[in-house]
Structures are given as structure tokens and as C-alpha cells.
Design a protein that fits this description.
The protein is an alpha+beta fold. The chain has helices spanning 2-16, 114-123, 131-137; strands at residues 25-28, 31-34, 41-45, 55-60, 62-67, 71-78, 81-88, 95-98, 104-106, 109-112, 129-130. The chain has one domain (22-137). The protein has 3 helices and 11 strands; from the N terminus they run αββββββββββαβα. The longest helix is centred in the N-terminal third of the chain and has 15 residues, at 2-16. It starts with a helix and ends with a helix. 21% of the residues are buried. Residues 2-21 have low confidence and may be disordered.
Length: 141
């Protein structure tokens, strides 16, 4: 009986910490970073009540990522093209449509230039980590 209670309490505590079995990181405001190398993207859940069942890609090919209570900053790299991203978690998130490769465009997700990215990182005191650092933390590397 004691072992069953211990297992139940462990499961409840894991659930309350927003952990999941896939190592996704809850960035806040229904945004998640899928760390696993096969996915490596920022996503939102199809159903917020079951965020780990199905999701929609917002930004692919993450290189660096950092966040605080107000913003998510990320860089992505595809075909040697580096992009800088800002997600405003305080703003309402409205669907604007889809780009190629089924990537959803949202009103609070913006591609910004490197100068604005650096300014935001400093002003908001956001520490960036590389995809490799996240993967090491979650034992993918």
C-alpha cells in the first residue's frame, strides 16, 4: 500500500511540474519547445487541455532559445539562413494562416533583425541556450 501511495504522489508531482515523457519544455502561454533532434521546433498544442497529444509548428530548426515571463527569443537556421524571432507572450495570439511546410503564422510571433534581437535579449535579461545545451540537460546528447 505504501509503495502504491509513493508512486501516485510521484505521478501527481510530475504532472504538476508540467513535465512530460518527451522532454518538451513549457515556455509559457501555450508555447512548447520540442527538444528532440527529430523535431527541434517551437509548437503550440492543438488542444490546450492535452498539450502533449498533438501540436502545430510555429518555428522550425531552432539554434538558440531563451525566455522569461513576457517573451520568447529564438534563432533558427535553415539552409545557412539565420533568422531571429520574438514571441510576445503578453499579446493575444491570433492565427494569421499557414506558410510552407505547415508552419502556422501567429500575430504575436515576429521575425526581427539581429539588432532588435540583441536589444530585446539585453532589456528583458533573457539568457539564451543552444539546442545542444537543452539536449544535454534532457539526455539527448
Amino acid at each position: 500500500m505504501r509503495n502504491k501511495l509513493l508512486i501516485l504522489l510521484t505521478l501527481i508531482s510530475l504532472n504538476s511540474c508540467q513535465m512530460n515523457w518527451y522532454g518538451d519544455i513549457d515556455l509559457g502561454s501555450d508555447f512548447y519547445y520540442m527538444v528532440e533532434p527529430a523535431f527541434n521546433s517551437i509548437v503550440i498544442p492543438v488542444n490546450p487541455d492535452e498539450p502533449y497529444k498533438s501540436n502545430i509548428t510555429i518555428i522550425k530548426d531552432i539554434e538558440t532559445l531563451g525566455f522569461n515571463k513576457n517573451y520568447i527569443l529564438a534563432t533558427s537556421k535553415s539552409n545557412d539562413e539565420k533568422k531571429y524571432w520574438r514571441i510576445d507572450k503578453k499579446a493575444e495570439s491570433k492565427e494569421l494562416g499557414y506558410k510552407e511546410n505547415s508552419i502556422m503564422e501567429l500575430s504575436n510571433v515576429s521575425e526581427i533583425d539581429s539588432t532588435e534581437f540583441t536589444r530585446m535579449k539585453t532589456v528583458e535579461n533573457i539568457k539564451l541556450k543552444t539546442k545542444s545545451e537543452y539536449r544535454k540537460e534532457l539526455n539527448y546528447e
